[in-house]
Design brief:
Blueprint (H helix, E strand, L loop, with lengths): L1 E9 L9 E10 L12 E6 L8 H6 L1 H11 L8 E2 L1 H14 L11 E3 L1 E2 L3 H9 L5 H4 E3 L7 H4 L10 H7 L10 H20 L1
Helix pairs in contact: 7-8
């Protein structure tokens, strides 16, 4: 099964007031899980806005992104492309097409199965509000989250990415860098699937 694992960084938690600052996606296939995650097709960009609106803690957490956006405004070179919302959506669609996804004949939208830590409840709620998203993408209502593979009977709540990684055999801090968090999510997800399918 093909899936696209995604992660975003935002200026806060309120999808109606806050903005997407960074997007990362990696394309995978469960029939090919032996392929190195880092060798899979990857998309990464920053998203600029005329004015930044958000919550102080999130802006502080994402200071490195704001530095990259400032480089772009100063005509310096950020470490990933910088797009407006619409440009980011169009570039992401082009990335899917270049990697074998075909727009549907009637709607011209790319349909994909999404994966991510809290993708359905958080990331997708922001992405679908981006300029051009709904006309270019159709995300399956069935989304993959590694937490369902690593939940344990004693858990009081659904485990976050760090406990999932620990249970998958890797101890590391979560970076809150979109693409690196995608790689971590894929590792936790696919290690969980391997355990399930043994």
């Amino acid at each position: 099964m093909k899936y696209a694992c995604g992660d975003i960084e935002t200026t806060g938690l309120n999808k109606e007031k806050c903005q997407v600052l960074e997007i990362g996606f990696v394309l995978r296939d469960t029939d090919n899980m032996q392929e190195s995650i880092e060798d899979s097709p990857a998309f990464h960009c920053y998203v600029c806005h005329e004015e930044y609106k958000g919550e102080p803690y999130a802006l502080a957490l994402n200071a490195r992104i704001l530095e990259q956006l400032a480089k772009h405004e100063a005509k310096s070179t950020p470490n990933a492309p910088v797009y407006t919302e619409r440009e980011a959506v169009e570039a992401l669609k082009e990335f899917f097409i270049e990697n074998g996804y075909k727009p549907s004949a009637n709607s011209k939208r790319i349909h994909f199965v999404a994966a991510g830590k809290n993708f359905g409840t958080f990331d997708y709620q922001f992405l679908r509000r981006m300029d051009g998203w709904e006309e270019n993408f159709n995300v399956s209502s069935r989304m993959l989250d590694p937490a369902m593979l690593w939940i344990e009977p004693q858990d009081k709540r659904v485990p976050g990415l760090k406990p999932c990684l620990t249970r998958a055999g890797i101890e590391k801090e979560i970076t809150h860098h979109a693409l690196e968090d995608v790689y971590d999510t894929i590792f936790a997800l696919e290690e969980g699937l391997k355990k399930l399918w043994k």
